[in-house]
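Subject: for your reference before the review

Hello V.,

The reviewers asked for a structural picture of the protein, and I figured it would be easier to keep everything in one thread rather than splitting it across files. Below is the amino acid sequence we used in the manuscript, unchanged from the supplementary table.
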Amino acid sequence: MLSLLSDPETWTALFKIAVINVVLSGDNAVVIALACRSLPPKQQRNAFIVGTGGIVVLMTGLTACAALLMTLPYIQIIGSVLLLWIGVKLLLPEDDEGNVKDNDNFWEAVKTIIIADIVMSLDNVLGMAGAAKGHFGMLFVGLVITMPLILFGSAMLMKLMERFPLLITIGSGLLGYVAADMAVGDLAVKDYVETHAQSLDILAPILGALFVVIAGKMISRRKRRAPAVEAHAASEAGDARAGVLSAER
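And here is what came back from the structure prediction:
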């Protein structure tokens, strides 16, 4: 153990893992901020800790399987579809149904953080696996070291989102951009795109961002309008019932 700690290569590998994780995790910080923005302050902190703890453990295992995962076609396409759904979902209004719902929202935020971050990290794991050189304990330590930096960035983003709601839309659009970028990089379509449709490298991410924002806004508007429509229908039904009773008298 002491010989490992005194080896310059160990510290070099840790530094590489940390840099790769921080540089490639800007979108991860956006997901954490988006997922936790509607929770009470105490639950925000707990969701940060539980969610990122799950990421560290799962990312270590995922990177251990990186070589296998990145040789399987359709992995990134499936992940991109999941990420598009998460991006749209994060734009929808939150329901307010008391403490039970708050608890549900906490675990929903944790689940969103873990799933989205793991999906977005599929194309990053090879870099970290290469830096770790098979020492997955070192990878775990590197992830633990860099996660506080990502948490700090998430907390800052969340405060900015509270002040500037437009950032919520921009953040969700970023998820759509990342999702479509992942899809065109999948092994099943990568060669075709590079040979016959190179423009998709630029167009697909833009279309992915637009899809998330437009779909999220449309569904959100419909959800907000639904209670008003139901209330109006109930009011008309009540007036009609009152009219019938009055006529009977």
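For the response letter, the relevant points are probably these. The longest helix spans residues 200-248. The two ends are 93 Å apart (CA to CA).

Happy to draft the paragraph if you're swamped.

O.
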